[in-house]
Amino acid sequence: MWAEGAGPRPLFEEDADAVVAAALAGDPSGMDRLVREYRLLRQVLDGARAGIALLDTDLRYLYVSPHMAVMNGVPARAMLGRTLGEVLPDVERPDEVLRQVLRDGRPRELILEGRTHADSPYASRVWRGTYHRLEEDGRVLGLAGIGLEVSGPRERQRELSRTNRRLLLLDTAAVRVGTTLDVDTTCRELTGFLVPELADAASVELLPRDPPGGGRPDGGSGQCAAGAAVRLRRVAVAAVPDLAPRVRALGAAGEYVEYQPGSAVRQSLESGEPWVGNFSSDEVLGRAAPSRGRVAAYREAGIHSGVVVPLVAQDRPIGTLTLVRAGDSPAFGREDVVVARTLAERAAASLAKAARFARERGMALELQQALLSEPTFPHDDLEVASRYLPSGTGVLVGGDWFDCLALPGGRTLLVMGDVMGHGVEAAVAMSHYRSLVRALAASGQPPADILREADQVVLAGGLDRMATCLLVLVDRAAGRCVHASAGHLPAMVVGRGRGPFLVPVPVGPPLGTGFGRYEAASFPLEPGCVLMLFTDGLVERRGEDIDTSLRRLTGVELPVDGALPEFLDTVLAALGVARAQDDVTVLAARATERRS
């Protein structure tokens, strides 16, 4: 155990993994060191005057120190395998916060209040605890909790309880507010969380970008014009059940509310600071309300105090958060304002991010749809139909595209492509790919050569986004199709008397790699058969193997004699594309019967 000539060897100096590895390898000194360190660490845990517990990922006790057992008034063995709620039903349960520690690994300090089975001179006991996540080789094992009892005079307990309530509110809000990149949803989450936790009613009003009548109510500067009413859009409102009808009558979600100069909302917007006040008289309430005509309605609802907090993003106001209390609820205090301001700051950041997302998504979607709406004209003996559905799961619009090009000799080229990535850049890259394939197709080259040349042009042009692409050349005169793939999924054929099947095609690398070695293959297309090209958004689902996804597609019963738009609607409905994580694009073609 001692290094020769170096004196005592410090404990816990080496990496724990190295000590364990030496012990497992049969090194006697490593095993001795491991046993000695375990004994000393166990003495620290068992002898600590703080309560120490280890919990598994289901928040069940794995280890309980002797002092924790004394604090709880329950033998340690009786707690093992049980949860806090099962052992101590009269103590606050911070389960939601503890699960957040398990998820993000950030330690949390909590203050718990209640009673245990141990004797105590206090009617209610208080503990301050810290919880840390335990991990091994990247795997979450559970939590370590260390707590000290801080029970004392009632005033001290009340202060600790308020602090704990604030911490719990902020931690809980972090997982319940701002869960999507949608402005209205974020506002609803915020008001829904604050009622009844902090207020009897809450509303979020935003400065509209394009209000009725044209022009920003603040002139586009973020500053309110003196002497003029400011119009804000009420995006979300929530209230306790007894107050909800009266609150909705004062302005429901989606309506515009005008605020007079000097009102609470105006003061908060102009100063950038929270406004808090008690409506001790009708005169005070009249000045704070949106307009003096609302005093009677506020009094009828029993509203007696309020807080308005500005929502500020990138140093400019975007709206306000308003909280009110009514009836027997106490007036707002300093702690309430601190919590409301912190939540407003977090919500404003989420709203700004959601607004940026909405703008970029709107631009990309407009570009995508403008490009895809260009008319295509196949030959008369081939009918086509298409669908493009942008993702509804929150990701940005992707770079899907399709085309249908009538070529000389009665041939028609069907194109389906997907640029990698999302957003405006992907949509712009898509337009380049679409134009390039059109130009190369006009030269009369076969599908494999079109892909090969497109790959080289993209590489030489420095376009930094690769794309998959499937080309199908339909030749009615020959009764066959020639197809080639650049990393794209194969086409599907549905024939009369035969279920859907995927047409085998040699798959080359995506366009833009410079490794373009593409091969063509052919297959027959009989009159009445439906040929369908699609992007991966139609079939791929998170956590599912692509082969499973494709089997689900070919397992759908599809009639081939109806209208092609109805055919595509059946496919989309059967695959539940509303839950797709990516854009969905499909193109169907059917060879018509030849005229005699």
What does it look like?
- The structure is a single chain.
- The chain is built from 17 helices and 22 strands.
- Helices cover 36% and strands 27% of the residues.
- The chain has 596 residues and is of the alpha+beta class.
- It has a six-stranded antiparallel sheet, sandwiched between helices. Strands 13, 14, 15, 16, 19 and 20 form a six-stranded mixed sheet that branches.
Per the principal axes of the C-alpha atoms, what is the gross shape? Answer: flat
Q: Please tally the helical runs, counting DSSP H or I stretches of 4 or more residues.
A: 17
How is the main sheet built?
6 strands, antiparallel
Distance between the termini: 100 Å
Helical fraction equals 25-40%
Task: State the total count of DSSP E strands.
Answer: 22
**Unreliable segments (pLDDT under 50, ≥5 consecutive)?**
1-7, 210-224
Mean pLDDT: 82
Strand composition percent: 25-35%
